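Propose amino acids for all 612 sites.
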């Protein structure tokens, strides 16, 4: 018996058409009010152009038939052409102005989105569902093809097309009212096909977004980051990456072909409907002309009216499709912007003003796409001002544990207390100010060295404090060798006189930034990984001075470097396996002693110069 598969529910927009239109108009009013009114000017101009296009051929034909003098006919023709020229110039000027104002609106949407991302709770970035919403929002604010940005243009165009419909419909009704119904019926059928195509494309957007993200990772991110070049060449990864990229491109092409097939099917149905609809209207008109019911000027007028009304209905249908597409994009954008974290963004209890304690009670955590828990049922208490070392094998959860401490991640189970109070009781941003981190993965700002250390605008930097932090971090000689000293900018991509620091110099700069902030809790995650032995030794000797007025967490793979800490936590098996001082853990003869002796044997040589 075949097992039934669970049907995935179809995604539906949260916000309707009118709600999304109102949202964009409110946004326009805040960012570029002129755009709200600019489109209105296009209505009379567009209507005048349509009226001239409709009546010019028949008027010219009538003038040529009835006028006995060339000058009279030429004057009429020149007047009509001049009126068309003025209207066309006006329409072009208004359209150009509207285009640039729409760019302001698009940039405003981008700014809103980037501001939201910078301020959002960081742990949300690990959620696959939130990542999908990120991609949907980027589609809605990515470029000028975003339909929602053009709502004012679409609605003024719609008003213009409705007025043109009345103009052409009035003329056609004099011929026969049923022709209007015939054209409208065909337009309705095309509308159904357009809605089907648009909805299917929208429902499959997440699949295309996922493929596009993977393709960009290989074809853009990896190719632009020169740090990958060495490994690709040394390990012969070019063929693998090429094969992987071609596979993704094939899948992406398959999704694009689905869209193309739907577009072709919709177009074929539309062309068939137009052929039958317009053909029947033209056949009726020709039959009336053959019977002698109208003269040549009237025939030209009615023919132009039928052609124009058919085009107007097509334009109305196209505008409706674009507005509907824009509404779905705007709905995605709004829903993504409404994702909120669980940390407290309002008033909170007062934050500690001196080093504080940290308590974990039965804390468990698993990354959203992880196969197993990184930490499970972890409990411990760190006293205020205590110096703790976290050690253990790779993947034991050391970095994850520190991220949980400062609210960059939130536990799946259990609770975390700062000075006896839950993380959720503090205002999120005030709580962040308690912590300073020297992380393993980091990004330096494209600004001066002093601004990177102070993380502040130029006018707000305490220069004496910056100099002292540079000295403590061991960067004095490097800074002195630079022409602009601490004012030297980082990033050669933005600054011609910018510099690039080595790995060890970057770690020293991060340490200087930590010292400048002087937080009440310092977290140093492998802070000596890129340092030479002399700089590493200086770091260890200065550690008590660096962390003299703070609770501190020191993560290291080198067990010999943790002796200066008050206690050592050994993480293993998703939990804390051992706790104590170096001497206590060595005396216990457990996992810590085993790892310590395994590491230290590579630093001891026997009498024959061989490793013991």
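Proposal:
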């Amino acid at each position: 018996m075949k097992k039934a598969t669970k049907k995935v529910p179809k995604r539906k927009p949260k916000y309707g058409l009118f709600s999304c239109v109102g949202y964009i108009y409110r946004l326009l009013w805040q960012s570029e009010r002129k755009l709200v009114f600019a489109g209105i000017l296009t209505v009379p101009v567009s209507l005048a152009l349509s009226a001239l296009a409709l009546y010019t051929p028949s008027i010219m034909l009538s003038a040529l038939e009835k006028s006995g003098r060339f000058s009279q006919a030429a004057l009429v023709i020149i007047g009509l052409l001049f009126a068309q020229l003025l209207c066309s110039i006006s329409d072009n000027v208004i359209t150009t102005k509207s285009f640039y104002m729409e760019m302001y609106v698009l940039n405003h949407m981008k700014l809103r989105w980037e501001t939201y991302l910078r301020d959002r709770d960081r742990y949300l970035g690990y959620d696959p569902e939130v990542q999908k919403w990120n991609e949907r929002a980027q589609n809605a604010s990515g470029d000028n093809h975003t339909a929602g940005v053009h709502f004012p243009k679409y609605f003024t165009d719609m008003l213009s097309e409705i007025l043109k419909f009345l103009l052409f419909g009035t003329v056609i009704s004099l011929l026969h009212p049923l022709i209007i119904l015939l054209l409208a019926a065909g337009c309705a059928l095309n509308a159904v096909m357009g809605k089907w195509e648009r909805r299917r494309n929208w429902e499959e957007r997440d699949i295309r977004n996922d493929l596009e993200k993977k393709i960009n990772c290989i074809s853009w991110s990896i190719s632009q980051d020169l740090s990958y070049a060495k490994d690709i060449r040394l390990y012969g990864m070019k063929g693998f990456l090429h094969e992987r990229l071609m596979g993704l491109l094939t899948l992406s092409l398959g999704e694009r072909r689905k869209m193309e097939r739907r577009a072709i099917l919709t177009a074929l149905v539309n062309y068939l409907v137009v052929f039958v609809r317009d053909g029947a209207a033209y056949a009726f008109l020709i039959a009336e002309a053959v019977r002698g019911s109208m003269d040549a000027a009237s025939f030209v007028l009615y023919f132009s009216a039928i052609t124009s009304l058919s085009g107007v209905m097509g334009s109305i249908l196209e505008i409706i499709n674009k507005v509907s597409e824009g509404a779905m994009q705007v709905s995605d954008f709004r829903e993504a912007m409404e994702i909120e974290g669980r940390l407290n963004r309002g008033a909170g209890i007062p934050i500690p003003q001196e080093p504080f304690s940290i308590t974990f009670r039965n804390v468990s955590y698993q990354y959203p796409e992880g196969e197993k828990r990184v930490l499970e049922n972890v409990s411990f208490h760190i006293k205020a001002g205590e110096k703790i070392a976290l050690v253990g094998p790779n993947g034991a959860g050391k970095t994850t544990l520190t991220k949980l401490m400062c609210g960059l991640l939130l536990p799946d189970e259990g609770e975390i207390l700062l000075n006896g109070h839950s993380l959720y009781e503090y205002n999120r941003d005030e709580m962040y100010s308690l912590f300073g981190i020297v992380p393993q993965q980091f990004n330096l700002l494209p600004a001066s060295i002093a601004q990177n250390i102070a993380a502040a605008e130029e006018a707000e930097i305490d220069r004496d404090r910056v100099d002292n932090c540079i000295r403590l971090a061991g960067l004095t000689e490097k800074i002195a060798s630079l022409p602009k000293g601490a004012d030297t900018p980082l990033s050669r991509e933005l600054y011609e006189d910018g510099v690039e620091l080595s790995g060890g110099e970057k770690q020293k700069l991060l340490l200087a930034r930590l010292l400048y902030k002087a937080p009440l809790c310092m977290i140093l995650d492998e802070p000596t990984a890129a340092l030479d032995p002399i700089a590493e030794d200086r770091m260890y000797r200065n550690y008590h001075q660096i962390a003299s007025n703070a609770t501190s967490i020191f993560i290291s793979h080198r067990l010999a470097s943790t002796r200066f800490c008050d206690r050592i936590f050994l993480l293993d098996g998703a939990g804390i396996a051992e706790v104590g001082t170096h001497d206590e853990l060595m005396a216990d003869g457990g996992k810590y002693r085993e790892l310590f002796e395994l590491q230290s044997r590579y630093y001891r040589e026997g009498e024959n110069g061989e490793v013991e």
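The longest helix spans residues 238-290. Confidence is low (pLDDT under 50) at residues 1-8, 605-612.
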